[in-house]
Amino acid sequence: MENKRCILCKNKNSLKKIRIRGKKGEKNVQGYVFLCPECLKKQWQKEVESHFGWEEGNLKRISSKL
User: Fold this and answer.
1) Cα–Cα distance for residue pair 51/18, rounded to 1 Å
2) 21 sits in which H/E element
3) 19 - beta bridge partners?
4) What is the pLDDT of residues 40-54, one digit of tens each?
5) What is the rounded distance in angstroms from the CA atom of residue 10 to the CA atom of residue 29?
6) 14-25: per-residue pLDDT in tens?
7) Quick one: the chain helix, strand, coil %, rounded to 5?
8) Which helix (H) or strand (E) is 32 found in, with range?
9) Are 20 and 63 in contact (CB under 8 A)?
């Protein structure tokens, strides 16, 4: 069983699964992150870009699920 936590604050409560797409160098990359409601209210895009080493400003939110 997978332990799901918010990628920014490590909280386990009320997570949302966010599908994201970005760019690392010349490669387009995509994946999922889990975020809690408090972190979703903040400017989470820049923090997630720096976490993965993606170019700044290239992250796009595709969809979200509970």
Assistant:
1) 15
2) strand 16-24
3) 32, 63
4) 898 888 888 888 888
5) 23
6) 899 999 998 888
7) 20, 35, 40
8) strand 27-35
9) no
